[in-house]
Amino acid sequence: MRKKPIVALIYDFDGTLSPGNMQEFGFIQAIGKTPQEFWTASDGIAKGQDASNILAYMKLMFDEAKKNGVKLRRSDFKKFGQHIQLFEGVRSWFKLINDYGEAHGVKIEHYINSSGLKEIIEGTPIAHEFKHIFACTFIYDENGEAEWPGIAVDYTAKTQFMFKINKGIFSSRDSQKVNESTSDDTKRVPFPHMIYFGDGDTDVPCMKIVTMFGGNSIAVFNPQNQAKRAVAEKLRRQGRVNFITPAVYTKDSRAYRLVCSIIDKIKAESDLKSLARY
Predict the structure, then answer these.
(1) Is residue 121 packed enough to be buried (19+ CB in 10 Å), middle (13-18) or exposed (0-12)?
(2) DSSP letter string over the chain?
(3) What span, in angstroms and rounded, lies between the C-alpha atoms of 45 and 57?
(4) Residues 6+ apart with CB under 8 A from 82
(5) In which residue ranges of the chain is pLDDT below 70?
(6) Beta strands 194-198 and 216-221: pairing type?
(7) 190, 169 in Cβ contact below 8 A?
(8) Are 225 and 273 in contact (CB under 8 A)?
(9) What's the pLDDT at 24?
């Protein structure tokens, strides 16, 4: 019996599934700052040291937590994740798409590819929906407290995770298997079977890779934020993405219609490819 084709839906997190940065839903309040104060300070570190914006925000989280007596254990990060606001329909989205895929002969998998913190995402009510979460992490000491960045995911690091999903590699540390040459027919999730969701500049390399290799990229935007819509429209004009849509994930949404249509196309092309082997 022929295996069902796998369709991978790969999501950025901040601005894509949630309307804000995940640090803004508990952590920043716990250290007594406003989001603007925190991000201004983080940008100042990056600019002043000519450093990574990702490592800068991770250092600032560590320093401010220590200064204000806030523990940074995995369990603490997960508690912050419980308070993250999600866009309309996100909680029910995964079952909707899974059911559609099942009814149309494909296997659906969901992934996160984020510059946010894996530990916070793991605390959200949707964490169990993902096959794997690729995101920043900390290293923890013998007391279980964060002491150093473990993984920092910037816009270029995000691209390596696309190739890991392509080859079925779920280790963030791996740098050997992901670079081995393998034939296209042995890759677990072909790029044409990928649907990438993102909202901004850090997603552009991933969007470009997916579209370049025959997959589909979707730029989403907060429907209440015209500036975000303008960013999405620019990405479409530049050919970085195939489609744009409001970040609304209900059954009657444009996002749902788009994804269902793409699934139909992937299944039809998979069937044709199988028939060509006769």
Answers:
(1) buried
(2) -PPPPEEEEEE--BTTTBSS-GGGTTHHHHTT--HHHHHHHHHHHHHHHT--HHHHHHHHHHHHHHHTT---BHHHHHHHHTT----TTHHHHHHHHHHHHHHTT-EEEEEEEEEEEHHHHTTSTTGGG-SEEEEEEEEE-TTSBEEEEEE---HHHHHHHHHHHHHT---SS--SGGGS---GGG-SS-GGGEEEEE-SGGGHHHHHHHHHTT-EEEEEE-TT-HHHHHHHHHHHHTTS-SEEEES--STTSHHHHHHHHHHHHHHHHHHHHHHTT-
(3) 8
(4) 123, 124, 125
(5) 1-2, 173-181, 183-184, 186, 278
(6) parallel
(7) no
(8) no
(9) 92
Map tokens 């080859």 to a residue.
Answer: 167
Q: How far apart are CA 120 and CA 75, in angstroms?
A: 9
Residue type at 193? H
| 184 token code pair | 């296209």
Q: Tell me, what's the pLDDT at 179?
A: 60
Question: Which two three-digit tokens encode residue 65?
Answer: 């937590």
